[in-house]
Amino acid sequence: KKVLVSSPKYGDAQYRIGKTSMLLALEAGNRGKPEDAKRHYVLADLSLKNARRTFLKAAADTLDESAQKTLKGHAFDCGIRGAGIMLQTVMKNPQQCEKMLDELQPESEGQKDMTAKILNLRIKALTQMGRGSEALKYLEEQMKTTKDIGAFADAALSVAASIDREATEIAGKKGRQDPEAQAAWKNAIRLYKASVVAMKSGGAKADAAKVATRLIIITGILSGMREDIPLATLDGTVKIFDKEAIERANDAFALVA
What we know:
The protein is mostly helical. Helices cover about 70% and strands about 0% of the residues. It contains ten helices and no strands. Helix 2 packs antiparallel against helix 3 (about 65-85) and helix 5 packs parallel to helix 7 (about 155-175). The relative contact order is 0.07. The model has no long low-confidence stretch (mean pLDDT about 85).
């Protein structure tokens, strides 16, 4: 029997195709096949958009409030997955992701889980666009609304790295003691420390060594040390800007497999 495009069953079918295509894209990426991965992501994006349109129409056509809530939830899930696809390496379209998140924002009103998902992707999109300072504002908002610190390990690390790059660029033009560069590095070191805590609480640990290294380097910069003097050779009379950063660096090194 033919399934009508306007039927929720059609939406379900398109949704399953979208999810399967995303899994195939991940597998292709892991096998070092970026062209295949992109092809699967493009199909996933199209299928999820078809499913979202169907779910939204079905929600608008029914008077059953319970069914409306379920269908709108399905539509949001399609939208948030589609937005995430835009941030994949082979797609790299954070501008489109941001646009899709703006569309989803009204649907998350009063829904903490939905709001958290939008915030997480928005932070990643902003960091991909080099807007680290703006991403920081959203990250701080997210950190206030969740008790699961491990949930924002990736986001904290992404923002820290983006702000770190901004600081390095500023220092390259104006010097390492420039107030703007110093302020950016202070924010970066704060977020790097938070990312280590998040890693210890169950967050992804793949970049632990990089985080540890940046914590040590930035601590040296903010302590006014020369680049050619390693911290390990300093005596106890030298004033370290942030001793906790060194402790978190040690924690991060301990997480390296």
